Amino acid sequence: MGSGQSAAVADTSYYDLLGVEPTVSSAELQKAYKRRALRLHPDKGGDPDEFKRMKDAYDVLLNPDKRAAYDRYGPIMVGVMNGEAPTLDVIAAMFDKMTVAERARVVSIAVLVACFVLASPLMLALRWDGASAEPWPLAFLPLWLLEAGAACGLLLIPAPRPEDPADELDAEAQAVHERLRSLKLEGVACALVSAVTQALLAAKLGGSFGGSWVAVFCPPMLLECCWLARGGCRAGRAWAEWVAARPQARLPGFLAEHFAWGAARLAAWALVAARAAGAWRGSWLFCLVPLLLCEGLRSWLPPARRAASVGSQVRLRGLSQRELNGREGTFVGVNESGRVVVRLRAGEAGGSEEGQRAWRDVGVKPENVENLEEAAAGRCLWLRWLPWLLLGALKLDGWRTSAFMLFLPVFVPVCCLTCAFSCGICIINGELVKQMDPAQQGAREGGDGHAAESTVPYDLMTEPAAQP
């Protein structure tokens, strides 16, 4: 192999299996494959494993896209081209090989996407403030395109299928299939109802729709009624699963988890429709009362504490060993006795005997574990929407401020995410990606001089502490 030719590709092992140079043409590659196949075929006395490796290499090099990916990244990219999920090594190689022009192209695409997302809020703010005389439907157009794209993306998500069409899906795959189908149904229904509501709203504001405001907000109210009816039909099975996962479950907590938000949204939509139609006079802030009451009710009732995923952060609570209540750790799994195994954070271990126990995995009852990531996600989502709703209600009440203030909860996160993504694309390299590997992080933490962590779990045979 010439050194100048080999330098053009990241790896030449596939070319070596066929006995050709990296600059070989497709016609020459086919001829080389026929010569090697005649010599390595098992029927001719060749090694079956070597023949298979040569055949796999030929299949990759014969495909122009796969060959280009192999020439640039090496064999690690072949699995991704065949549909496998990219590993950290593949992502690290992609960042190492990414040129300045390619990084600039990715950043430009991210900025264009952000501008398209912000186009509708920007046009709505200008139209609301009277700074623009464009038709209302034009202001909603980017939002309709986003919703259509989201709905199409949901429909294109592939469902799990068995390798053999004659086989049936196992229980886990069947559950994933059912959940995916439900997600598609809910997503498409929400996108469709949102688009219809926006179209009616634009027509009403533009004067081309002569119906009442109640008719404008009928689609979301009907959708909420459908969700509540659907939840009612599944209430029996949902209650059985709820009790099985939470032996001390109570009916108020079940109702708050499964029906409170739907009922609160329905009440809020009804109040908005009635206020817009002039059925009652008062502040638009009153329309938010059902949502605020629902959030307060969910905060007052015992938390749902859904099952955490492996690696998520959890907190221990309700234990009779009060020194362990409030301790945070990592969810490891469920042991044979049905107890949740939690690995307490090593930074909280002390020199005492009780502190040393914190280095070990502990097994507790499911109701003694609170999923911190789910609670934080719920709080972030609520804080994300609450300012928007409050500003919108104040603006409708006559508060003299620009409509741009109303859309700040949209502008700020999108701009921050775009800036963070662009900076990450510009500075991240392969070494930084490899440092994200949990195995390497564990190896680094294990060699920093601390005591080794014991992986032998023990059960806390305790009952929930009595409430004072």
TrEMBL record:
<protein>
    <recommendedName>
        <fullName>J domain-containing protein</fullName>
    </recommendedName>
</protein>
<dbReference type="Pfam" id="PF00226">
    <property type="entry name" value="DnaJ"/>
</dbReference>
<feature type="transmembrane region" description="Helical">
    <location>
        <begin position="106"/>
        <end position="126"/>
    </location>
</feature>
<dbReference type="InterPro" id="IPR001623">
    <property type="entry name" value="DnaJ_domain"/>
</dbReference>
<keyword id="KW-1133">Transmembrane helix</keyword>
<dbReference type="InterPro" id="IPR018253">
    <property type="entry name" value="DnaJ_domain_CS"/>
</dbReference>
<feature type="transmembrane region" description="Helical">
    <location>
        <begin position="404"/>
        <end position="430"/>
    </location>
</feature>
<dbReference type="InterPro" id="IPR036869">
    <property type="entry name" value="J_dom_sf"/>
</dbReference>
<dbReference type="InterPro" id="IPR052814">
    <property type="entry name" value="Peroxisomal_DnaJ"/>
</dbReference>
<keyword id="KW-0472">Membrane</keyword>
<feature type="domain" description="J">
    <location>
        <begin position="13"/>
        <end position="74"/>
    </location>
</feature>
<keyword id="KW-0812">Transmembrane</keyword>
<feature type="transmembrane region" description="Helical">
    <location>
        <begin position="138"/>
        <end position="157"/>
    </location>
</feature>
